[in-house]
């Protein structure tokens, strides 16, 4: 299968971005806000994922090793799970999705994923058995469960590996329902946002807000997944990035090379971010500014152009959502249909998209104090 996927992916169509007048302009109406900084039930910590299951909203809370459950109107309904390693318990909450009418939640620390029914009751669990070629010391992350029960799994790199130049590729494996590895279906490549700052007797891993690493997103019902390869531009336009959509059998559904105009990184932008990171880092006396600043300036100095894609999400309805950079500090969402054709653009709210279906979107937004809220937007089409 891997060889066939590579061959199919090579026959791509290069698509210039259509003029704005050729695409529909969708608008978003803010309808529901969930979260309360002073309520232990509705107050949200870091949100790892969101699932809409019937009339319920499930929110993964990895810092608490459990899920919060709300109605779609925002009413708090309860919790799923707690810290532990028994049935229905978690050592770590990672990704989640829908399969065969149930909700699954991945626990990479225990190398298992658990299934829950519509009422949030534990049903069963399954484990990843690994493979002799995979280092036993690394955690395996289930990124998605496809229609036949096969699993998309990543054996993710450490921060030290991502800080290498260039960082090694990160494979996406296909495991069968029996938990055994079958194939490699994609590679995550490109420069990461992780940088190692080294001093005399110490090393600190930091990150810069620009990455050319590939994106992977899986439709929540396992109907397919999307890989976006966003190799860095090294000159003025034209340039392209590649989007590949795979179906529920992990076969290539379509592949597109999309043209874009590279946006240069201004010196003022670099300086602003260097100053911010230096200020945060040197609060610790272990990290002297005289060593930290030159290394951060060197890392930022290699950034010539911004990556074209700042986010991607595979929707429940077969659509692909791409968050495109349109300026130094401006973005918009472009919507691709089931064949990869651009059909609409959307002005983005603040925050990151966590769920998309035919009618609505759920975003994680933060207030001026950094407190997280979930916001539902209804899509308004012309």
Shape: globular
- Report the strand count: 27
Number of helices: 4
Beta-strand fraction estimate: 35-45%
Average pLDDT, all residues: 89
Which value, in Å, is the CA radius of gyration? Answer: 21 Å
**Helix/sheet category:** mainly beta
* N-end to C-end Cα span: 41 Å
Helical residue percent band? 10-25%
Q: What composes the largest sheet? A: 8 strands, mixed
Which assembly state applies to the chains in this document? Answer: single chain
Q: Which spans of ≥5 residues are poorly predicted at pLDDT below 50? A: 1-13
Would you give an account of this structure?
By secondary structure, this protein is mainly beta. Helix 3 runs antiparallel to helix 4. The model is unreliable at 1-13 (pLDDT under 50). A hairpin with a 5-residue loop joins strand 13 and strand 14. It has an eight-stranded mixed sheet, with no helix packed on it. Strands 1-20-19-18-17 form a five-stranded mixed sheet, with helices on one face. It has four helices and 27 strands. The protein has helices spanning 2-10, 159-162, 267-281, 289-301, and strands at 13-15, 24-34, 49-53, 56-61, 66-71, 76-80, 96-99, 102-107, 112-116, 122-127, 141-145, 151-154, 170-175, 181-188, 194-199, 202-207, 215-218, 224-229, 239-247, 252-260, 309-314, 320-325, 331-336, 342-346, 352-356, 360-366, 372-380. The relative contact order is 0.15. It is globular and about 55 Å long.
């Amino acid at each position: 299968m891997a060889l066939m996927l590579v061959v199919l992916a090579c026959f791509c169509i290069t698509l210039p971005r259509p003029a704005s007048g050729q695409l529909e302009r969708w608008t978003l109406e803010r309808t529901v806000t969930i979260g309360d900084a002073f309520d232990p039930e509705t107050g949200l910590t870091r949100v790892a994922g969101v699932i809409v299951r019937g009339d319920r909203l499930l929110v993964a809370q990895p810092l608490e090793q459990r899920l919060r459950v709300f109605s779609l109107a925002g009413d708090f309904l309860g919790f799923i799970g707690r810290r532990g390693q028994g049935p229905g318990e978690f050592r770590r909450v990672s990704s989640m999705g829908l399969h065969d009418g149930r909700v699954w939640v991945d626990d990479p620390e225990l190398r298992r994923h658990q299934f829950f029914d519509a009422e949030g009751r534990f049903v069963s669990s399954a484990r990843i058995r690994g493979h002799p070629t995979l280092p036993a010391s690394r955690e395996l992350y289930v990124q998605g469960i496809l229609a036949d029960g096969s699993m998309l799994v990543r054996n993710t790199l450490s921060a030290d590996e991502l800080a290498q130049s260039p960082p090694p590729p990160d494979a996406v494996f296909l495991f069968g329902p029996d938990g055994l590895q079958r194939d490699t279906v994609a590679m995550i490549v490109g420069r990461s946002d992780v940088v190692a700052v080294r001093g005399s007797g110490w090393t600190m891993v930091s990150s810069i807000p620009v990455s050319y690493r590939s994106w992977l997103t899986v439709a929540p019902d396992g109907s397919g997944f999307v890989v976006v390869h966003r190799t860095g531009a090294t000159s003025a336009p034209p340039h392209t990035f590649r989007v590949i959509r795979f179906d529920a059998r992990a076969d290539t559904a379509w592949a597109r090379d999309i043209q874009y105009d590279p946006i240069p990184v201004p010196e003022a932008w670099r300086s602003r971010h260097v100053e911010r990171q230096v200020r945060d880092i040197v609060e610790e006396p272990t990290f002297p500014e005289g060593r930290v600043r030159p290394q951060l300036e060197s890392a930022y100095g290699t950034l010539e152009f911004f990556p074209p894609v700042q986010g991607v999400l595979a929707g429940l309805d077969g659509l692909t959502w791409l968050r495109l950079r349109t300026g130094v500090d401006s973005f918009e969402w472009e919507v691709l249909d089931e064949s990869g054709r651009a059909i609409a653009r959307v002005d983005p709210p603040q925050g990151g998209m966590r769920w998309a279906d035919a009618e609505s979107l759920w975003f994680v937004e933060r207030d001026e104090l950094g407190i997280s809220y979930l916001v539902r937007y209804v899509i308004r089409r012309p």
